[in-house]
Design brief:
The chain has one domain: Fumarylacetoacetate hydrolase, domain 2 (Alpha-Beta Complex). The longest helix is centred in the N-terminal third of the chain and has 17 residues. Helices cover 22% and strands 29% of the residues. By secondary structure, it is α+β, with helices and mostly antiparallel strands. It is globular, with a radius of gyration of 17 Å. It has five helices and 13 strands. The strands form two sheets. Strands 1, 2, 3, 5, 6, 7, 10 and 11 form an eight-stranded mixed beta sheet that branches. The protein has a five-stranded mixed beta sheet with strand order 4-13-12-8-9, with no helix packed on it. The N and C termini lie far apart (44 Å). Helix 1 crosses helix 2. Bound molecules: 2-oxoadipic acid and magnesium ion.
Length: 258
């Protein structure tokens, strides 16, 4: 028996339903070919379902911007995904573990965009377009069984985007280099890294976001937030656990699962 080939629309709907029902699906790329461009089109279609249900696009996230993440997930290229208002967890707040499949948390730096980005910018130019930065935790939750995917699979799945929490916004420091970063679960450090682990300079991640967003026709506008990608491995977070992340000089943020 040959498995039937799914349309991009059908893949998007499957991924959407997997997220809504917390029932993970089989990887797509092991069953049929999916190019990177097709995967971004699936991501776009998937987001249309969310917008129809009332969610608003509020930013973008970069992924696989550190060696630690690429090695942990077995992939080797940058990816980007979309963040909606429904994904935002209140700082020091509570999230429901039951609305996720197998969530992991990772420490990040977040940028706040102050004016519309005109196109691809380099790592110096982007600084002009940011009015604040903060410590963040991203909650990733793959819609694929066992959190296993190819690059195309994860792009189609909106790069595992599911939740994030932001610390207090800080003025943009002179440099984002060499800031120690850590992730704790129940007050114990479970992963530690440095802002340099993010492409040797987190501003490079934002520059890459402007390049990829331009390439795929996704505007980056004033007020949007951009997650730079995790500096360390992601760690599973379970019910009744709390987590926090710290970036030196930027402060801490965290939340708890109930
Ligand atoms: C994909 C998302 C990667 C990051 O910060 O590198 C990512 C995943 O690992 O499931 O968000
Ligand atoms: Mg991330």
């Amino acid at each position: 028996m040959t498995a039937s080939v799914l349309s991009l629309d059908e893949i998007a709907l499957q991924l959407h339903q997997a997220a809504r029902t917390q029932n993970p699906i089989a990887q797509i790329s092991t069953q049929q070919e999916l190019s990177i461009d097709q995967a971004y089109e699936v991501q776009n279609l998937l987001l249309q379902h969310r917008y129809k249900e009332g969610e608003k696009l509020i930013g973008l996230k970069m992924g696989f911007t550190s060696e630690a993440k690429m090695q942990q997930m077995g992939v080797n290229d940058l990816i980007w995904g979309r963040l909606t208002d429904a994904m935002l967890i209140e700082n020091a707040g509570i999230a429901q573990r039951s609305s996720y499949i197998h969530p992991r948390v990772e420490p990040e730096i977040c940028f706040r965009i102050s004016k519309d980005i005109p196109g691809e910018l380099n790592e110096q130019e982007v600084i002009e377009y940011v009015d604040a930065v903060c410590t963040a935790i991203e909650v990733i939750d793959s819609r694929y069984q066992n959190f296993k995917f190819s690059l195309a699979d994860v792009i189609a799945d909106n790069c595992s985007s599911t939740g994030f929490v932001l610390g207090n916004w800080q003025a943009v420091p002179d440099s984002l280099n060499n800031l120690p970063m850590s992730l704790s679960i129940n007050n114990e450090i479970v992963a530690a890294g440095n802002s340099n682990d993010i492409m040797n300079n987190p501003w490079r991640s934002l520059a890459a976001a402007t390049r990829l967003a331009t390439q795929y026709g996704q505007p980056i506008t004033a007020g949007m937030i951009i997650l730079a990608g995790a500096a360390t491995n992601a760690e599973f977070l379970h019910q009744d656990q709390e987590t926090s992340a710290t970036v030196e000089t930027l402060g801490s943020t965290g939340f708890r699962f109930n």
